[in-house]
Amino acid sequence: MAFVKLYREKLRENYQYLDSIFKSRDINWGVVSKMLCGNVIYLKEIIDLGVKEIHDSRISNLKKIKDLNPEIQTVYIKPPAQRSIERIVRYADVSFNTEIYTIELLSKEAQKQNKIHKIIIMVEMGDLREGVMGEELVEFYGKVLSLPNIEIRGIGTNLNCLSGVMPTQDKLIQLSLYKQLIEAKFNIKIPWVSGGTSVAVPLILKNARPMAVNHFRIGEALFFGKDLFTGKTIKGMYNDVFKLFAEIIEITEKPNTPIGELGENVAGNTFSMQQIDDFSSSSLRAILDIGLLDMQPQYISSDDMDILIIDASSDMLVVDITFSKKNYKVGDLISFNLRYMGALYLLNSGYIEKKIG
Prior knowledge:
Elements: E1 3-6, H1 8-24, E2 28-32, H2 40-48, E3 53-56, H3 59-68, E4 73-76, H4 85-91, E5 94-97, H5 100-112, E6 117-122, H6 137-145, E7 150-156, H7 169-186, E8 192-194, H8 201-205, E9 215-218, H9 220-224, E10 242-255, E11 282-288, E12 300-302, E13 308-312, E14 317-320, E15 333-338, H10 340-347, E16 353-356
Parallel strand pairs: 1-16, 2-3, 2-9, 3-4, 4-5, 5-6, 6-7, 7-8
Antiparallel strand pairs: 1-10, 10-11, 10-15, 11-14, 12-15, 13-14
Keywords: Isomerase, Pyridoxal phosphate
Pfam families: Ala_racemase_N
InterPro entries: Ala_racemase, Ala_racemase_N, PLP-binding_barrel
């Protein structure tokens, strides 16, 4: 059976590294847990780090966090669906918002539950996902200010999530200017200016973020230590907090060319003869006990650099071990490094066992 392993000490060291960076710069931050897909084993590991704030995009996951530790501030990181208002007020202390009508519903529900619900008003900064348009922001903010049981915790933006727009210094300066404009207009102080996700960490390391931007939501950098500007691992962090292990269930020398009339496979792909250099050649192929139900091959890479991933069907992954220096046998485990989306698929699968290392 294939399984994912979380390495506790590497996670802790990554967390402490980030926490020291943020504390030294007087930045608030929360851990984005959505990649964990509500897995209680792994959520406990996050909570045990001493995290005070956790962000997620699934209400069911926020409920689990509150069940584990009611003192943790939970943040719902997408505009609420109207049919979910009651549960969002119940399990999310804070939510991201872009629609007046939705905030009015949150206000009414918060009154029913005798709660103050905090919101962050998201601002469109060019990535073209969620966000109030900049020219409408001041009027929007003024309407929200009058709503009972709603506390505006701050303004924020999402970048690099849809169109790939990067959180440059200029973008964050623009967000800071919106803060100044609103504070001057309404004679208030905005506690949070939430400048984005892990993609902004390199700016923080370079001390290039405007001082007014004082809040970030971090997931990928914590779990993968990744600099999303360069694609490299941030110095001092681990990129292998998570690993996939899959068992070999067959090893056989087979031709490199399929035999028979070709059509689409289960994934809708058609084999191309252009993939083959030598039609008379064969390779030593291993089949692993994992497939497309659980992962996507493009988001994983073998620790053994001499292994080539061929393709996958719904429940099996085929790899070429011809040039590996290891003498693999049926029953052996092959380990894989994961990209963010690779881990997301695996952690969302009920068929993959989750372990702690």
